[in-house]
Amino acid sequence: MEELTPPSAVYYAEQALLGALLLDPHRLRALATLMPGHFDSPAHSALFAAMRTVPTPDPEVHTQEPVWLNAALEAARPAAPGLFPSYLHTLIQACPWPKHARTYARMIRADHARRTLRTHAQRLAQATADTTAPSAASTVLARTDALTGS
C-alpha cells in the first residue's frame, strides 16, 4: 500500500490565510505584496487570485449572505475545478485567528522564497554536472548572471 505524502507546513498557512480572507474579505487590502504565484497549492493560488478579482462585499451583507464566497468560488473554479463549497468551510475552520492574516501571508512569501532558491540551486548544481557543456564553470557563471540580472 502506497502512503500519501503529508502536506507541507505552508499548506496549513495557506489554508489559514484563505480562511481568514473568507471570514473577512477586507483583509485583502493589507496583503498587496502577496501574489497568487506565491502559493504552493495550485487550488489555493486559484482561490486567492479569484478573491482578488471579485469586489469585496459590504461587511453587513457578508455576515448575512454568502454572495462573495460563492462569487470567489465560481471565479476560481475554471483554474481549480476540484474546489467545492465544502472546502471553503474547511478553510474557515483552518483559520484559528483571522487577525493574523498578515503573518500567514509572510509565511507563504517566505516559503515561496525558499522554493525559488531551492529550484535555482538545483539548476546550478545540474549545470556544474553537465558533461555536454563546453565549460561547466562558464555555464554556471552564465546562469548565475541570468539569476542576478547582470
Give an account of the 3D structure.
With 150 residues, the protein is mainly alpha-helical. It has a domain at 9-112: DNAb Helicase, Chain A (Orthogonal Bundle), CATH 1.10.860. Helix content is 63%, strand content 0%. The chain has seven helices and no strands. The N and C termini lie far apart (50 Å).
Keywords:
DNAb Helicase, Chain A; mainly alpha
List the helices and strands and how they pair.
Elements: H1 9-23, H2 42-53, H3 59-64, H4 67-76, H5 85-93, H6 101-129, H7 136-148
Helix pairs in contact: 1-2, 1-5, 1-6, 2-4, 6-7
Distance between the termini: 50 Å
CATH architecture of the domain at 9-112: Orthogonal Bundle
Q: Kindly provide the name of the CATH class of the domain at 9-112.
A: Mainly Alpha
Form type:
elongated
In CATH, what is the homologous superfamily of the domain at 9-112?
DNAb Helicase, Chain A
So how many helices? 7
Please sum up the structure shown.
The chain is mainly α. Helix content is 63%, strand content 0%. Helix 1 (9-23) runs parallel beside helix 2, helix 1 packs across helix 5 and helix 6 packs antiparallel against helix 7.
